[in-house]
Amino acid sequence: MKLRLVWVLSLVLLPSYSYSEPYTYGTTDNAVSNALRWTMDSILPSIGGVDINGLLYRYTTVKDPDADMKVHVSNRNANGDGYTFRETDDWSGVPGNTIVKSFPLSNIPASNWGTGSIEVEGEGTVKDAVVIYSYRLDRCYDPQADPTCAGYVKPIPKIPEPIEYPKMQKVVIYNSLEDDAVKDNLESDDFEYEDEDDKRKESEEEDTESRIEMGLMASENALTLFKTQSQNAMIVAINKQTNINMYYNTQINGGTLNDAAGLKDGTISDNKKALRNNLAQQLLHEKMIDLQYNK
């Protein structure tokens, strides 16, 4: 049914389709697929250069033949008050039926088409509603979109602006030989060099102290090693005293004790004392039960 409506729409609006570059044509899906109110953004291509050049609608009314009823098919004006398109069908005094209408339009820009709707005035309902728009797309709406468009200008590559770097500050090199304080110290006669004999004596004294320290350290290490060896010798001697290998070879005289279990006369007599004890417990148990039930 939808394909047939599109075919009918194309035939009805064919005179307005005078083919001329750079236009292409198309039709929308049913705008009333979900409700009796819709937005054009949801059905038209979301690009510039789209014009509406036709509209077709179909619906079926359900009503009492004597009831008053009007149906308004319209689109609000997106750029102001009123309507870009509005058609009213008067069903007052007639039974419900199906109606199909088509309208050629003079390429009204899509930006003028606001919210669309089917409104019922009076008693009755509308079902199986279909609204389809025919549109024209100008691919040269923006001349820069295609080199074949009239008015196309070859784009000029954008030349990047030169980068301005901050100016370099003058670098001042410090020369210590030109410093007045350094010059004063260099020219001063108060500096005294250390005597070579004194330096040699100090060095010999430091060497002597170092040799004495090394000797003392060696003596301490020798004593420590000796103490360690003495301890090891004492541990070895103690271990010899606790040698228990001699006990491993000791034997104890003895033999095997065979178990010789037997039963005299081949029978075991009853324990009369145990029987009396069991009987007394049974009587006590029955007495307690009788007391429980007030016997």
Task: Give a short overview.
The chain contains five helices and eight strands. The protein is α+β, with helices and mostly antiparallel strands and 295 residues long.
Which descriptors would you attach to this protein?
295 residues; alpha+beta; Jelly Rolls; four-stranded antiparallel β-sheet; 31% helix; 25% strand; flat
What features would you describe in this structure?
This protein has 295 residues and is of the alpha+beta class. The chain has a domain at 2-145: Jelly Rolls. It contains five helices and eight strands. The chain has helices at 2-12, 180-187, 196-241, 245-248, 272-292; strands at residues 23-27, 37-38, 50-62, 69-77, 83-90, 98-109, 113-122, 125-138. The strands form two sheets. A four-stranded antiparallel sheet has the order 1-8-3-6, covered by helices on one side. A four-stranded antiparallel sheet has the order 2-7-4-5, with no helix packed on it. The radius of gyration is 61 Å and the shape is flat.
Helix content: 25-40%
Low-confidence stretches: 11-20
> Sheet bearing the most strands, described?
4 strands, antiparallel
Q: Tell me the radius of gyration.
A: 61 Å
Secondary-structure element pattern, one letter each: HEEEEEEEEHHHH
Count of DSSP-assigned helices: 5
Strand content: 15-25%
Do you know the CATH topology of one domain?
Jelly Rolls
Alpha-beta classification? alpha+beta
Basic shape: flat
Average pLDDT value?
79
Q: Strand order, main sheet: write it out.
A: 1-8-3-6
Number of DSSP-assigned strands: 8
Q: So, CATH architecture of one domain?
A: Sandwich
Q: Would you state the CATH class of one domain? A: Mainly Beta
Terminal CA distance: 98 Å
